[in-house]
Amino acid sequence: MSTLTTKFFEDFLKKYEKDDTIKVEKFEKNCACESEMNFMSVVSRITICGTKNSKEQEWSLIIKQPPTECFFNAQKAFENEIFAYQKIVTTLEEYASKPLRFAKCLFASKELIILEDLSKDGYRNLKKKTMLTLEQIKNVLKELANLHAASISLMIKNPEKFKAISQTVQEISFATPKTDVMVTQEWNLDKAIDLLKSNPEASAILCELKEKTFELQKQSLMGPRKLNVITHGDCWTNNILVNKNNEVQLIDLQSMRTTSIAADLTYFLYTNMDPSVRMKHEKKLLNIYFKELNQNLRKTNVNYQIERKFLDSEMSDFKLFGFMFGMFLLPVFCAKNLKSYSLENTEPEITRRILLFAKEYVQKVKNERINCEKIRHVGPQRL
């Protein structure tokens, strides 16, 4: 990119640090994360050498640039992230009970975003095959609760500003026509159906989803709901930084959208945990989020609290969303070679998890049908 010159960084640092004595002598550009983990932008670390007040100085920055090839609409994603850093985050921080843990944006243009380098404070990306620990999961849920509470506070105190922000963000994953992500989801569904073909009832439940998953997920995300909040939209391991104390920072804000709290929760829990581990701990983890959300709402001085039955209802509505995205990201965590991965030659660990996801989804659908039948049979009596 032509703007990445010593003069550009010297002018930038002089303006940002308000110090005209800064001189940049050279800079070095290196990849800031695993090559197979860059899906929506090119992320680099810039190490700058120079002087400040005639003394040697070194700076480290993170830059993001649009990729030439991408699963998604790269330009829309980049525009979303610029808007997120310049408008959404700065607005929400005014209504949050405590600072939002996002990397600070130092500069943004149509072709370049400059962020603070959080590695200087001990934060790091996890390797792609490393699942988050339970402690890290809990801390991310607390940060999502803080984000969602700030959004609710904004919605109540300044509904016009909340509406303006919500209408500006562009949908990436569920834009029309279908993206490659949605096509891959359908492949995963075919794999799940094949794995459960010996169980006619389970196979039939999954077959009912054929050619419908895109619209069903889109309806959940974009349809009218009792409560909409501004969500992170893409909260998985690749977009989470951790330090040695298991404190977390959230990055990559291209997919922020206004929708149900359950969109962030199902996406995060289903994509970052082994299905068997999540099923064992999900109730306790949601209790942590629920408690943190209401505590933050009280601290923002809004007369609003979330009921637990409402949270459970929203999570139920988004079970398909979690199921489909959980399976979609499995190759990233489990495939030995992501570039050569194919659904025709699925590795044993991926097959195991797809089967767990599918069985759990089928059981939830069966339970709901049983409950609906009980309600229908009882009729109008009070339960």
From TrEMBL:
It holds the Pfam family EcKL. SUPFAM superfamilies: Protein kinase-like (PK-like). InterPro entries: CHK_kinase-like, EcKL, Kinase-like_dom_sf. SMART domains: CHK. Residues 113-299 form the CHK kinase-like domain. This is CHK kinase-like domain-containing protein. It comes from Brassicogethes aeneus.
